[in-house]
Amino acid sequence: MLEGLRVASQNWIGRTIMAIVMGVIVVSFAIWGVGDVFRGMTAQRLARVGAGEITVDAYRNAYQMELRRIQQKLRRAVTNQEARQAGLDQQVLERLVLETALDQKARALGLASSDQTTQQLLAQEKVFQGADGKFDPERFKQIARDAGFSERGFVTEEKAAYIRRMLSDVVIAGVEPPALMIEAIHRFRNETRAVDYFVIPTSAISSTPQPSDEELKKYYDEREQVFKAKEYRKLTILTVSPSSIGKPNDVSTDDIKKLYDEVKTKRFGAPEKRDVRQIVLKTETEAEDALAKLKKGLDLEALAKELNLNPKDVNLGLVEQRDFGDPNVGAAVFATTKPGLAEPVKTAFGTVISQVKSITPAVFTKTLEQASAELRSEIAAQKALPEVKKLRDIIEDQRASGKTLPETAAAAKLEVRVIDSVDDAGHDKNGKNIDELAINLDLLKAAFASDVGVDNDTVATRDGGYVWFEVNAIEPARQKTFDEVRPAVVEALRSDFAQKALTEKGDEAASKLRTGRSIEEIAKSFNVEVKRATDIKRAPRPEFTPNTIVQFFDAPPHGAGSVAVDSGRLVFFVKDSVNPAFDPNSIESKTIAEQLKPALQNDLIEQYVGGLEKHLGVDINQKVLESLTGADKEQ
Q: DSSP characters for 497-550?
């Protein structure tokens, strides 16, 4: 055959025929999908990021590795469909795009890591260390094999990861939550209100109509979900926090007094303030002349006018000692026992002469005795922080080795708490609050997002502690039939009738309060007494529902409102609102900062990488992606 082709191509007619035949073959290849040979095998490229690319094999390996990790964590098989519904395909792709973009930027900046440096970093990773705390080569090889890499390939991958981390660390270096943001969260959490209130009882509604069967069935059909048995979960909880392991009885009286003296003006009252006028004179001669005039009785403001100084620069107004930029000037101003001239202070800008016009004494809302219990607990919690961190490391080591929570607690000489049944609102089957879960809403949310047998992430507490939990059993929610819940439907519908009437009465009472009517007078018309609740925060309280507390804070100070409660309609008047002084050095402030920091860092990295990807350009082949994850087969 080859000889025949050679003979045929020796004249122009044969060459023409051969060219036509070969052209038809090339076009056929292109039509039947072999055109990739001539297009640089683009079918093997899933995405392009600038000059870099993500191959089909790279994505497939990363996807399968992440899927195996999830299956190991859940201890069950996970289908591709489940993974896609959870967004795993997009998460893996986004991570690969991010890594490719960072790799290119790192190369452009000339960032690199030598083999020796990489080996040193690998040796420091705890995951590669044995029981003796030293690098374990066999453990390293096993982890590399589990990840689907050769030993050399795994080192290369880790080297690239270290370089990306180096670049990321540069981007987020020095990032700290702004004090204003921390203060805003602190104030939101700790603002307190005093509320006068009374409850209009359900008995204030004389009677409600008896609903018909048709009304009952319609009410049930429209609100089937209301008559559904809730899902309950059995939990095992291990809490390690400063408040749970602190020892208040070991705190001395001297320590309490010392802390009280340090914080009393910030937390338990208002510090001393002084109305101050101040001028700065550049030379000693000018300062001496000015002092002479002031000592003869000339007012400092009049002197400032003679010197053509701006009155706004002279009048400091009512200030605290901490408001002065130069502490020596502040000390001199607050050293005087009565209004008058303060001792002049020499500074780098000249001689500062201050005059105190009036003094507003410090006012304290809590004495040492009144604040003693609070400060004792705070000091005990502060001293317990090192022990909390130590116990956290012990527990994490035990968990990493596959121990259950009770086994982990026993190793740390702690006790777990078992909650037999709790719903997503923190109530047991009798509808009562379970204190620990009602307070820690983050724990409750995490518990109902988890499953039986899952190795869960730790939940942080407000005071800088940690909570570990396991879901031991799940009692699924179920729909109750109409016949099963008919008495409850009757009660609910009649309650709705009563609540509507109560709402009208409550709103009318609140409207009267807004016009200036006395709450005692309005309560008297319902034959109920007025109660007062103080120190209300945006946090659960046994006597109020979460919705009631929200309403207390939705109303302005000296405002009024009404809200439905179990026993009727609560009508309230906001008597007072106090914004606490912000202490950036308190445990809570530091905890808020620690909780905010990772989120801020992640946001900054996302913005940086987003800008980088926009600059480089990202092109994703969606058809190839759908083919890889099986999404095309479901369409």
A: HHHHHHHHHHHHHHHHHHTT--HHHHHHHTT---EEEEEE-SS-BTTB-HHHHH
Per-residue tokens: 111: 């960032």
CA-based nearest residue to 239, from 447, 465, 453: 465
158 sits in which H/E element: helix 151-172
**Structure tokens of 343?**
């001792």
User: How far, in whole angstroms, is CA 218 from its chain's centroid?
Assistant: 43
Tokens of 163: 């370089």
Q: Alpha-carbon distance 504 to 84, whole Å?
A: 50
Residues in the chain predicted with pLDDT less than 70, given as ranges, are 1-43, 75-76, 436-439, 630-635
CB 266 within 8 A of CB 580: no
- List pLDDT tens digits, range 106-154: 888 888 888 788 888 888 888 788 777 788 888 888 877 777 777 787 8
Q: Which two tokens stand for residue 595?
A: 């909780």
Tell me, what amino acid is at 257?
A: K
User: At a CB cut-off of 8 Å and minimum separation 6, what does 193 contact?
Assistant: 536, 552, 553, 557, 574, 575, 576, 577, 578
pLDDT digits (tens, 9 = 90+) for 541-584: 889 999 999 999 999 999 999 999 888 899 999 999 998 888 88
One DSSP character per residue, 3-18 reads HHHHHHTTSHHHHHHH
Q: Locate all alpha helices (DSSP H) within 334-481, ordered by sequence.
A: 368-400, 405-411, 435-439, 441-449
User: H helices within 246-367, ranges in order?
Assistant: 253-267, 284-295, 300-306, 311-314, 327-333
pTM: 0.46
CA 129 to chain centre: 32
Question: H or E stretch including 357?
Answer: strand 350-360
Q: Given this model, what pLDDT does residue 513 score?
A: 94
Distance of alpha carbon 573 from alpha carbon 254, whole angstroms: 41
Report DSSP state, residue 595. H
Q: Give the residue among 30, 49, 98, 32 at the shortest CA–CA distance from 621.
A: 49
| C-alpha closest to that of 315 among 360, 280, 277 | 277
200 close to 568: Cβ distance less than 8 angstroms = yes
Among residues 302, 363, 298, 354, the alpha carbon closest in space to that of 323 is found at 354
d(C-alpha 393, C-alpha 389), whole Å: 6
C-alpha distances (whole Å) from 446 to each of 14, 300, 443, 471, 592 are: 78, 64, 5, 10, 19
331: left (phi over 0), alpha (psi -120 to 50) or beta: alpha
Distance CA 296, CA 158 (A): 79
**Residue 414: strand pairing partners:** none
Answer yes or no: are the C-beta atoms of 463 and 591 closer than 8 Å: yes
